[in-house]
UniProtKB/TrEMBL annotation:
<comment type="function">
    <text>Catalyzes an early step in the biosynthesis of tetrapyrroles. Binds two molecules of 5-aminolevulinate per subunit, each at a distinct site, and catalyzes their condensation to form porphobilinogen.</text>
</comment>
<dbReference type="GO" id="GO:0004655">
    <property type="term" value="F:porphobilinogen synthase activity"/>
</dbReference>
<comment type="pathway">
    <text>Porphyrin-containing compound metabolism; protoporphyrin-IX biosynthesis; coproporphyrinogen-III from 5-aminolevulinate: step 1/4.</text>
</comment>
<keyword id="KW-0627">Porphyrin biosynthesis</keyword>
<comment type="similarity">
    <text>Belongs to the ALAD family.</text>
</comment>
<dbReference type="InterPro" id="IPR030656">
    <property type="entry name" value="ALAD_AS"/>
</dbReference>
<dbReference type="GO" id="GO:0008270">
    <property type="term" value="F:zinc ion binding"/>
</dbReference>
<comment type="subunit">
    <text>Homooctamer.</text>
</comment>
<dbReference type="InterPro" id="IPR001731">
    <property type="entry name" value="ALAD"/>
</dbReference>
<dbReference type="GO" id="GO:0015995">
    <property type="term" value="P:chlorophyll biosynthetic process"/>
</dbReference>
<keyword id="KW-0456">Lyase</keyword>
<dbReference type="GO" id="GO:0005829">
    <property type="term" value="C:cytosol"/>
</dbReference>
<keyword id="KW-0350">Heme biosynthesis</keyword>
<keyword id="KW-0149">Chlorophyll biosynthesis</keyword>
<dbReference type="InterPro" id="IPR013785">
    <property type="entry name" value="Aldolase_TIM"/>
</dbReference>
<protein>
    <recommendedName>
        <fullName>Delta-aminolevulinic acid dehydratase</fullName>
        <ecNumber>4.2.1.24</ecNumber>
    </recommendedName>
</protein>
<dbReference type="GO" id="GO:0006782">
    <property type="term" value="P:protoporphyrinogen IX biosynthetic process"/>
</dbReference>
Length: 232
């Protein structure tokens, strides 16, 4: 609300997920026996999306990877009069090793629960298997049918083949997330003098575009904008 009041023309994208607010670090509600409760989670994701739309979000971005959440969120937004609010779905979000720096900063990695609860040690139950290529096509078809306006691939560089596959199989815009681990690797290598940071970062961003991405989310956004504008 503060951003919209101060910068009314800025497009605001918000994340829809439970992990920042969940004591065990998972994107979904976890039953005592360790099962992720898909439908119960989707209900709260819908409430979260509507709350964000009411605050002024232009696009809500479900990153949880629960089944059926895009359609449910679309119906919830429309029911509350937010037909103009778009959905950027995390369509192909992989159970990747490249999320580490972000999870450490947010303290959102899965955590052990109380003695009577079994907490899954990772998010592989609902995020995608890095070895599985074809699942992304099934997820894309489902998200498009449920009303997604933009589809995302996350992470970026290790999944350029998936970006290209989605680009070739939908007319929707494709976004890609240049995640914290990818950013940290470039930063660390540059700090050690192993590569030219500007050239390497801009090459990485260009690769996303070449693979078919229409939008790029990256921790390099401010620096890249300055480099592209000719600033040092």
């Amino acid at each position: 609300m503060l951003l919209k009041d101060a910068f009314p023309d800025v497009e605001i994208y918000t994340d829809v997920a439970l992990d920042p607010y969940n004591s065990d670090g998972h994107d979904g509600i976890v039953r005592d026996d360790g099962v992720i409760l898909n439908d119960e989670t989707v209900e709260y994701l819908c409430r979260q999306a509507v709350s964000q739309a009411e605050a002024g979000a232009d696009c809500v971005s479900p990153s949880d990877m629960m089944d059926g959440r895009v359609g449910a969120i679309r119906r919830a937004l429309d029911r509350e009069g937010h037909t103009h609010v778009s959905i950027m779905s995390y369509t192909a979000k992989y159970a990747s090793a490249f999320y580490g720096p972000f999870r450490d900063a947010l303290a959102s990695a899965p955590k052990a629960g109380q003695a009577h609860r079994r907490i899954p040690p990772n998010k592989k139950e609902y995020q995608m298997d890095p070895a599985n290529y074809r699942e992304a096509l099934r997820e894309a078809a489902a998200d498009e049918a449920e009303g997604a306006d933009i589809m995302m691939v996350k992470p970026g560089m290790p999944y350029l083949d998936v970006v290209r596959s989605l680009r070739d199989n939908t007319s929707l815009p494709i976004s890609v997330y240049h995640v914290s681990g990818e950013y940290a690797m470039l930063k660390a290598a540059a700090e050690r003098g192993w590569l030219n940071e500007k050239d390497a970062a801009l090459e990485a961003l260009m690769c996303f575009r070449r693979a078919g991405a229409d939008l790029i989310l990256t921790y390099y956004s401010v620096e890249a904008a300055k480099w592209l504008a000719g600033e040092k």
